[in-house]
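Hi R.,

Here's the chain you asked about this morning:
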Amino acid sequence: MNETILLAVRDETTRQICTRVLETLGCPLFVTEDMTGLPQRVTETQATILVVEADISPKLLERLATCKQAHPSVAIVLIVGHATPEQMVAALHAGASNFVVKPVEPPALLTALNRTGEQVQRLRARQIRERQYELLFETMLDGYALHEIICDEAGHPVDYRFLDVNPAFERLTGLTREIVGKTVLEVLPQTEPHWIETYGRVALGGESVRFVNSSSGLGSKWFEAVAFCPIYGQFATIFKDITEQMQAEEALRAALAESQHSRAEVEGLLESARAVLEQHDFPTTARAIFDACKHLLGAAAGYVALLSEDGAENEVLFLDAGGLPCTVDPYLPMPIRGLRAESYRTGKAVYHNDFARSEWERFMPEGHVYMANVMFAPLAIAGVTVGLIGLANKSGDFTDNDARIATAFGELAAIALCNARTLEALEMRTRELGERVKELNCLYRISRLLEQQETSLEQILQGTVDMIPSAWQYSDCTCARICFDDQVYQTPNFQETPWVYAVPLSIYGQQVGVVEVYLMEMEAVGNSRVFLQEEEELLKAVAEQLGRVIKRVRTADALQKSEEKYRTLFDHANDGIFIVDPETRCILDANENAARRLGYDKDELLQLTLVELAPNQPPTLREDILAELAERNSAIFETTHRRKDGTMMDVEISSRVVEIDGRKVYQSFVRDVTERKELEAQIQAYTHELEWLVDQKVSELESERAKTIHAAKLSALGKMATGVAHEINQPLTAMLFDASYLTTIAQDKADGSAQWKEVYEIGQNLASDISRVRRITDHLRTFGRLSGGQATSINLNRPIENSFLLISEQLKHKGVDVRLRMAQNLPLILANPNRMEQVFLNLLSNAEYALDEMARRIEAGDVERPGYQKVLEVSTTVDGEAVVATVRDTGCGIPAEAQERLFEPFFTTRPVGEAAGLGLSIAYGIVTEVGGDIAAESVENEGTTFTLRFPMVK
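And the predicted structure, written out as tokens:
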């Protein structure tokens, strides 16, 4: 043996026998007679085996438990006299490993020590293995999860539950350990049934499977996984994330396909571009572009059509039915509707891959070629769609990439159409220009006349009349007249005839005269048009130019009058006005109001500069203002001006750059704002004081609210905790280890003995009870923390179940019949789980008091309720868009006069000193804060029902 032994024996004979036997083992040996300081002696000697001689008594059991608590790994051998089985079980529970009955026989002592040493070795090996497993579990790079399969009554797998996950699982999936204990359909509702069936074969049949799978519920990641069965009914999965590998492979395949497709796309576009450059006839060019596009996209049929002049129909240029029958005249106009209208409206390519069954099919005429799928790409000129390329019957589906390619071909077709129309218009324009040389010469001579500065308006009007006939095709028999301001200007040969063309002279939309041209001899015209369109347009242009000349003359007259009016406004304005030289910054002009407010004569004021007028203005601010004026031509700012008597005046200045007599100057409007500044300062002071008072009051209210909620939570927690026997986790951990060790010993000795079987069952029950106590204490500690109130998506059943975890034993002890009717697959609500637990703890606590009070009234004879039974029923269900929870009791009920004040703070129906009256008011605040509603129905001496409604998360 390689153990260290501490011998605690008071009897001299027994100590000598034990010493001789133990020395033969060659182990470090320490001897003591002090039975009270065993934990300290074990620490000092680092003993792994403790041999104690004593009768089994409560005092000994207490010492052994204390020693075992301080040193859980030490093995204890008891040397006892007579001991009953009950005493031995108690000693095992206190930490004993083996027994030696006095008088001590060396072989029996050696056997007990060897067996104990083996137990120590096994325990140490198991601890090492468990630690190695924990290290592997915590540090492995692959994700690991352990599950148990869930079957229906027929034994078919329908779900599975998470039992354990490692950190790598959390990192790879984004799911946390909070899923442990939940089923996969709770965590990932979209899980497909075949995966549950596959894992069922693994857990129930023992087979192992390997697979690569993509999970949309985990962020569309790819995993390579293996699933195997560690024990019947369970399965474990080990997996790694291969998303990047799969994405790289997919990207490589896509890049290869894209490269091949791009080559064909470029070739098709180049071929179409050559057709645009080589062909000037649009139908020929459009056919070449269409064929290239159809071939590249794999379409079988299609057409090219242009928008009609009225914009109401689609006129087909040509139609390719792709070999399919079509009895409709392809050159009939097509109304702009259906999917075609979408392309015209949006200016983008559109497509539909199930056109034969779409809503658009109803717009197709009878006998039209069958179309499985279609695409339309616009022909746009200057942002306006003027036609379409239609494609149909592709072997596969049209895609967004097809739409992009078709759009490019549509742009080429639009360029070809634009080129054709431009060439046609250019040819027509060339012919028109040749015919309009006379009109241009006429306009040129009139323009030269208008440019002469000294020419009067009367000379301009008469000169224009004289020039008009020379621009007409029958100039020898043409005369003209201008009527304006009751004056008439006409050619020397003027005479009125029935053949006249007149254009009004207009200024600002109002007619002020007319320009007329008369044809004196109709025989010269013959059967042709009396006045050409070009002649009519020329006369309109002449009238427009004359209108501008008349407007300019009148504007000059009005300007002179405006300047006189401006000087009057300048001198009598309420604000001070300054005109300042940008270069010298001297005051060039100022109105009387500016001089009066500053205490100067106007001549004195004109001797000052900006620097003298505003001496307290920082130079940097002055330069910034001047820079803003130079950049934006205007600036608004505040400064101070010095009066003649030396006092300062607060002013607001609005400056802008204006031009006077061809010279740029600063025009500034100055307003005295001294009184306004004083008022603003007072308002700002009052505002700061008010904001400070509001902040103080809000802070006080928030603090009191948090304290009130926390006080109510702690009050409920204290009442629920009365059934908890131990509050420290360390003793619970030691007790759980002892219970596990007891069941191990009893299992090793399971030779059919009823006593050892009983010991085994006791150990298992003890371990279960200790685990439950640990869960309760852990939950109490979590619940007791002050909640920040952050809302999350929760299942309302969870806080209800957690509330009963704290109070169930207390209710059971008081004989309450608890009935839980919790709806399965309950929709989620948005709330804070701790606050929801507080709500239901308050309601359950009130129900418990009402049930006790009802029992007291019946016992006192105040109320008669034959066969009375304490019943507390909690249920959850779904009502429309709401999740509903009800808490019903058969307690004493609430008086009718008290029900209206039920949710008021500090109101209670209990005797003074038993309750603070905050529970229901806090519950009301928590429920309404998340958009919920709480209501109560009660009949005194019959019971109360609370109904809570919460909006479900959509």
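Residues 598 and 643 are 5 Å apart (CA to CA).

Let me know if you need anything else.
M.
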